[in-house]
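Re: that backbone. Tokens:
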């Protein structure tokens, strides 16, 4: 999965260029104005330049696979993001120390220095917004970390402008501005470090993504239960692992179901690197039977698709009646493929067996039911009560023979 490597690398190169420009700009302003806050911002720029180079290296390395690392080195991006965060925190310490212990100096403020700081505010604002948008599109934690850094630069440079304007009015705010910049830097650094460490320590995917995946799995008619679902991030990519209980016992059909689910997950959730689905047949504690009825008196219908009613009967493995309900056939009046649509409807109702008097072998409904692991049972019983009693006797005989 390297489709995002090219754009991410180009953006990392652009970030290096922007940081070079900002560093040179703030160097000139610091020399011209003597501002401690601008000097702090210069140190901040230089640390960002180093981190931008590290981000580029992380993006390049994260796409590689080898025999020793068959799943790739995606977490290198998060490792780089944590390194960026540590550099930011170290920078904050150095700036704070200088602000608290350094000797106060008078600022030299003129139109040139104010214009330079204004430019150093505008450039990170424009590029930071663009980089954040692209970082989210590529789901790159290192690019989004860099974008957050540019947001900090925008606020800190704006603070420097206020300091310079205050200096013109006789107010010395340079040291206080430097300390406020330190607080902004510390907050950004801590957020980046905590987010990167969550991924490095295999923290779970966000609940919204897991709920979306769980909904896809539960909506599949062949899935009777989602036993477990876990997911994690590695760099920009996501890894999903699920344990399912399937209604189908045939291995080939089960494999087709898992392939269908994997494609659905990849279509709904971006940047999926791997979907691993474990499955096993459903444990039959209870069985849901569907009977086509000709009337409310319980007469078993001779027809499947045209039956006006369907009785859903749930029996325990010991033959105990747990639930009985009668539903109207929603597809009875349709002109075409009503049998297939009735079969699809019953599959969605999680029916395990369909008990009919009409032979369905070789017909469309039979294929739909078989694909979902629903068994078709022929009966000669004329009414529902007799048919259910027959099933109970078969359960008893089967239990005695075990």
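Recovered sequence:
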């Amino acid at each position: 999965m390297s489709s995002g490597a090219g754009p991410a690398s180009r953006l990392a190169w652009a970030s290096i260029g922007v940081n070079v420009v900002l560093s040179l700009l703030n160097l000139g302003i610091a020399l011209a104005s003597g501002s401690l806050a601008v000097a702090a911002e210069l140190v901040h720029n230089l640390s960002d330049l180093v981190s931008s180079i590290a981000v580029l290296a992380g993006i390049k390395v994260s796409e590689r696979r080898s025999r020793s690392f068959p799943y790739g080195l995606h977490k290198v991006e998060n490792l780089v993001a944590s390194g960026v965060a540590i550099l930011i925190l170290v920078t904050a310490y150095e700036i704070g120390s200088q602000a608290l212990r350094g000797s106060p100096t008078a600022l030299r403020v003129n139109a040139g220095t104010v214009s330079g700081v204004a430019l150093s505010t505008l450039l990170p604002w424009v590029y930071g917004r663009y980089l954040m948008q692209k970082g989210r599109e590529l789901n790159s934690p290192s690019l989004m970390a860099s974008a957050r850094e540019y947001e900090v630069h925008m606020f800190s440079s704006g603070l420097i402008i206020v300091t310079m304007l205050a200096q013109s009015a006789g107010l010395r705010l340079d040291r206080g501005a430097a300390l406020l910049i330190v607080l902004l830097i510390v907050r950004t650094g801590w957020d980046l470090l905590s987010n990167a460490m969550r991924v490095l320590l295999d923290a779970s995917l966000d609940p919204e993504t897991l709920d979306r995946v769980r909904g896809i799995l539960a909506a599949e008619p062949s899935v009777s239960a989602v036993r477990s679902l876990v997911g994690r991030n590695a760099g920009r990519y996501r890894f999903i692992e699920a344990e399912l209980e399937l209604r189908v016992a045939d291995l080939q059909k089960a494999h087709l179901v898992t392939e269908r689910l994997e494609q659905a997950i990849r279509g709904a959730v971006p940047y999926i690197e791997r979907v691993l689905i474990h499955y096993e047949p459903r444990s039959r504690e209870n069985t849901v039977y569907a009977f086509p009825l000709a009337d409310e008196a319980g007469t078993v219908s001779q027809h499947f698709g045209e039956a006006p009613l369907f009785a859903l009967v749930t029996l325990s493995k010991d033959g105990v009646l747990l639930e009985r309900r009668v539903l109207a056939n929603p597809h009875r009046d349709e002109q075409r493929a009503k049998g297939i649509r009735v079969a699809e409807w019953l599959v969605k109702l999680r029916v395990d067996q369909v008990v009919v008097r009409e032979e369905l072998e070789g017909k469309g409904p039979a294929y739909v039911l078989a694909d979902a692991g629903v068994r078709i049972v022929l009966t000669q019983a004329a009414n529902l009560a007799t048919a259910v009693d027959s099933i109970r006797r078969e359960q008893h005989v089967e239990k005695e023979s075990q």
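The longest helix spans residues 5-33. The beta strands are 223-234, 237-246, 272-281, 286-293, 309-316, 321-328, 353-356, 375-378.
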